[in-house]
Design goal:
alpha/beta, Rossmann fold, 8 helices, binds adenosine monophosphate, five-stranded parallel beta sheet
């Protein structure tokens, strides 16, 4: 199963992706995580660090290269979930080409949909436990007392609004691109985590 998860920041994409990957035993491949790792190990050029900090996109070639290398690894051979990639039509086209060279195809593109005001609240109150990667929400899913909480630099309100705007511009082209190919499934991302997982699983089962 090769799938893409698309959703604005705070839509619960990361949370759902983790659940789906555990159920289907496929790796979650997140360009955002890979870029943050590169940054943490000092391998990301300063101009890209700044791009990320401001909520802008890094160049297509950079993320396409990350995806090419990551999807070549052994654990990605039976499938993967792409999270945060592609974000532009050129990235989507590059992905199609890359998969075609391996005689592979995408199965489904899941778009999680959540209204803007809810997104801002979700993202600004989101915290991650550094040790486990588990995502919490200060209001809806409080972390345990021993969690080592981290607030992502790009989850600050102004940056979140900028990222949502960037997302809206991006999907204006990207979703129609996948709609045309018949792979797109729009899923309501408002509700309990388990309920949304059920909606996503139903869409995936139908696309198998
Ligand atoms: P994310 O964790 O997916 O929200 O990504 C965090 C940041 O990494 C984004 O705001 C971008 O600066 C950068 N980034 C991640 N994935 C991509 C992508 N596919 N194309 C361009 N920039 C990306």
């Amino acid at each position: 199963m090769r799938l893409i998860f698309v959703g604005p920041p705070g839509a619960g994409k990361g949370t759902q992706a983790k659940i789906i990957c555990a159920k289907w035993k496929i790796p979650q491949i997140s360009t955002g995580d890979m870029l943050r790792e590169a940054k943490a190990s000092g391998k990301l050029p300063q101009e890209l660090v700044q791009k990320m900090a401001s909520g802008g996109l890094v160049p297509d070639e950079v993320v396409i290269d990350l995806i090419r290398q990551r999807t070549e690894q052994a654990d990605a051979q039976s499938g993967f979930l792409l999270d945060g990639f592609p974000r532009t039509v050129p990235q989507a086209e590059a992905l199609d080409k890359l998969l075609a060279t391996r005689a592979e195809k995408l199965n489904v593109v899941v778009a999680l949909q959540v209204a803007k005001d809810l997104l801002v609240e979700r993202a600004t109150l989101r915290r991650t436990d550094k040790r486990t990667g588990q995502i919490y929400h200060l209001k809806y899913k409080p972390p345990p007392p021993d969690a080592e909480l981290e607030h992502r630099a790009d989850d600050q309100e102004e940056v979140v609004r900028n990222r949502i705007e960037t997302y809206e511009k991006m999907t204006a082209d990207l979703l129609p691109f996948y709609e045309k190919t018949g792979l797109l499934r729009r899923i309501d991302g408002v509700g309990e985590v388990e309920e949304i997982t059920r909606r996503v699983m139903a869409a995936l089962e139908a696309a198998k």
